[in-house]
Amino acid sequence: MTSTLSINAGQYSEKGTKPSNEDACGIHTPDGPLLTNKGIAVAIADGVSSAEAGREASEACIKGFLSDYFSTPESWTVKTSAQRVLGALNRWLYGQGQSSLGSAQGMLTTFSAIVIKSTTAHLFHVGDTRIYRLRGDELKCLTRDHQTWASKEKAFLSRAMGADLGVDIDYRSLAVEVNDVYILTTDGVHEYVDDKTLKQLWQNNQTQPESVARNIVTRALENGTHDNVTCQVFEVESLPGQNEAEFYQHLTELPFPPALESGQSIDGYKILRELHASSRTQVYLALDGDSNHKVILKTPSVNFEDDAEYIDGFLHEEWAGKRINNPHVLKILEPKQQRRFLYYVSEYIEGQTLEQWIHDQPQADISKVRPMIEQIVAGVRAFHRQEMIHQDLKPGNIMIDSHGTAKIIDFGSTKIAGIQEINTPIERGALLGTYDYAAPEYFEGHPGSNRSDLFSIGVIAYEMLTGKLPYGKPLSKRALKQVRYIPASQINPTIPSWVDAALEKAVQLNPAFRYERMSELVSDLAKPNPGLVKKEQPLLERNPVGFWRGLAISSLVLNLILLYLIANAQA
Beta strands 120-126 and 130-135: pairing type? Predict the structure, then answer.
């Protein structure tokens, strides 16, 4: 039977000898898909006693983190999600401290959190709270106290949430094993309970983490702590693990649909006709029986009924599309009825592909190309904001509707950062796209990035302006050392040199030399960038064929003149 992620957890907190408890802690285990896509979060905070509102700060951090982390996009990585949330919380604490007290010392707190997702632990840490891991008989502190020592006896916090507008958050990730035990403590505990005692108190009562947390706090109080005392303890009971058979069984809960023909109905959709078929998918135009609107049904090919990697990718194509809401990205629709087969539904776009547009308008004017590229960039940036890399941008995957609006229509190769963190028996994220437009780093076995999508956009823009590819042929690992950028103006003389310079930067073979942001490409296609425009190149570099042709003609003319002079001299 397939295991799911589960922990056995407990926590306990007391004010100790202080008048109030400025510590805070919390544990959140979500239900359903969030358990897989976001994991389990455990967090502890210790309000700085010298601050005016340490208690409010620690409570705000715990409540805010445990709420907002699970509200971030499921496509984001744990690191991105947590750092975005903690950055926002830090700015809020700093702002509250400034506005209410006239200084940044009003709302300060330490903070440590651990997120267990799939089979990995993600740690986030600011201050001097601690996270320990007990594996077997080895207890190890996984965090580093952010302290500055004024003397042998006195230390001050060097880092805290709310202390400044920006905060440096320690992050690390570690593999998790079943039966790992994690212990989170505030300094009122770990300064008065040594490592040997922590281990012993766990071993004395391993099945009751809450009792262990209470006993650790009690021991700190008995040892004379003068601070608030808080402890969290949890043991990893099980981790998500599927063998290939179990994984395939989960993927095939819905059977592949049969071949569909005009007039047939499936789950309330009437098939009008087949629009496209390939070895991987079929695309049908259908009529929604409820709304009477035309929609698209995309179905998987029966050629891949026993291919777990293919089915996983098909499911995530719909998953990704549902999380993007942008006018330049195909809209995925929620089925009106419970599906009996594996397929997904999207809006119907009446128009033509960009591939056909290029065929109809060879060597288009820059004034037509520029707004089209701007729209494609807007759609791709919607993917990047969700930490997704499209990986298969090409003219055939972009539709132009009757109003001239460009829309990206295919997500089959999309790499989703948050999904990549989930351990499965298959390898996700392999490039499935078209090599004509793929970035060269893919051919060398390197992972793609936002700049890989930018390369594809650069190739598309080049092709719209010239009808050709920037390196004359599709790239491959063998060809990378031999190819050379062909100036677009050499093919289409109407292209300004500054536009050519922007295209060349976008399609650099080394991603480090490309634009860092897509907005920079859009800007440089709209107006000259003085930093890119080169001095007039020698003819040999600009047009080597023309140079050698001209040299040959000049040599021929010179030889004819010499022959004429010699003949006259001998006459």
Answer: unpaired
Average pLDDT of the segment spanning 321-330: 96
pTM as predicted: 0.85
* Tens of pLDDT, residues 511-560: 999 999 999 999 999 999 999 876 445 555 555 666 667 767 877 777 77
Q: What is the spatial distance between Cα 407 and Cα 378, in angstroms, rounded to a whole number?
A: 10
What average pLDDT does the chain have? 91
Grouping H, G, I as helix, E, B as strand and the rest as coil, residue 310 is: helix
CA distances from 254 to 144, 298, 309, 318 (A): 48, 14, 15, 14
d(CA 321, CA 333): 9
Binned at pLDDT 50, 70 and 90, residue 570 comes out as low
Length of the chain: 571
C-beta of residue 522 within 8 angstroms of C-beta of residue 511: no
Contact between 184 and 112 (Cβ < 8 Å):
yes
Determine which of 235-239, 241-245, 329-333 has the lowest per-residue pLDDT on average. 241-245
Task: Tell me the C-alpha to C-alpha distance, in Å, between residue 133 and each of 45, 181, 373.
Answer: 18, 6, 51
3-class secondary-structure state, position 320:
helix
Predicted pLDDT at 496: 95
275 touches 283 (CB < 8 A): yes
Looking at residue 50, what DSSP letter applies? T
What letter represents residue 434's amino acid? T
d(CA 462, CA 362): 11
